[in-house]
Design brief:
The protein is about 35% helix and about 25% strand. It has about 290 residues and is α+β, with helices and mostly antiparallel strands. The protein folds into two domains: about 110 residues, Gcn5-related N-acetyltransferase (GNAT) (Aminopeptidase, 3-Layer(aba) Sandwich), CATH 3.40.630.30; about 160 residues, 3-Layer(aba) Sandwich (Aminopeptidase). The strands form three sheets. It has a seven-stranded mixed beta sheet, with helices on both faces. The longest helix has 16 residues.
């Protein structure tokens, strides 16, 4: 019988082991999202017979992620039995198209895609070089930044940088000051990344000018894909977003073919910015 529990720091090694591969390339199936973005700690997890289960269980509903590892058919049966015995209404979220078909076959539930949650997938080779006419604007931003801030440096993030990163966060969030739930959650997530960085499998980078952080980013490589979970820059430094994006993807020794820059959550400005980087594909996610 599945026994779900709250994720604690002691569980992270086991969870990271199950997240070493992500064939669907959906960002929610990575450590950065599961361990860091769940700021209200609503996700519960269980491991049984070589399968990891993730779910949010509340108000008579169980909202499952697709099971990871082991025998899929047996895992789906265990999910069905778990919900039946506890009289919970079963739902799924963040399914790939293939997973949605399997859920439909097993449970008769029709998965529906949500454009706001589609992940933007890019060619790593294109973002590393910014070659060609379609990247003319991005390359101009990078070149302009290099000219205007010749003393800039890109450095791998380490925990000794935390005070400077916190100083950056205060300035960034004071200046942006958006009144949205997701924006407010982001600040909490940023603080969590800084405090729990060493145990979540992330890689960070900072862009500095005159010794001050003007942009910061965090992500991880899983399989053939770099997932950029967090990226912020001070807008007064023109081109800082383009520059840290360019330098971060070029900073990894481990090879990867794609870059997942995650969803736009319906923010029109963010959507346009992501489209301007010319994704090779939008990864649909299905919900039941």
């Amino acid at each position: 019988m599945l026994e779900f529990r709250k994720i604690t720091p002691a569980d992270r090694t086991e969870i990271l082991e199950y997240l070493k591969d992500n064939p669907s390339r959906i960002c929610e199936n990575t450590a950065g999202v599961i361990l860091l973005w769940d700021v209200d700690e609503r996700i519960r997890y269980a491991v049984e017979d070589g399968t990891m289960y993730l779910a949010e269980i509340k108000d008579g509903k169980a909202i499952f992620y697709y099971p990871i590892g082991g025998d899929e058919e047996k895992a789906l049966e265990k999910i069905e039995n778990f919900c039946r015995e506890r009289k919970l209404t079963l739902h799924f979220r963040f399914l790939s198209a293939e997973q949605a078909e399997k859920v439909k076959t097993k449970f008769g539930q029709e998965g529906k895609p949500d454009r706001n949650w589609a992940d933007y997938l890019y060619s790593a080779a294109e973002l590393k070089t910014l070659s060609g006419k379609k990247f003319h604007g991005q390359k101009n931003f990078v070149n302009r930044f290099s000219r205007e801030y010749p003393d800039h440096k890109f450095l791998p993030y380490n925990v000794t940088m935390r005070p400077l990163a916190e100083e950056f966060a205060e300035k960034f969030y004071d200046e942006e000051n958006k009144d949205s739930r997701i924006f407010k959650e982001e600040k909490r997530i940023f603080c969590r990344i800084l405090s729990e960085y060493a145990s979540t499998g992330q890689t960070g980078g900072v862009l500095t000018v005159g010794g001050k952080i003007v942009a910061i980013t965090f992500g991880e490589v899983v399989g053939d894909t770099l997932y950029v979970h967090f990226e912020k820059a001070l807008r007064e430094y023109k081109g800082s977003y383009a520059m840290i994006n360019y330098l971060f993807v070029n900073s990894f020794k481990k090879p990867f073919d794609y870059v997942n820059r995650e969803e736009d959550v319906g923010d029109e400005g963010l959507r346009q910015a992501k489209l301007n980087l010319h994704p090779v594909r939008l990864i649909e996610k299905f919900f039941t």
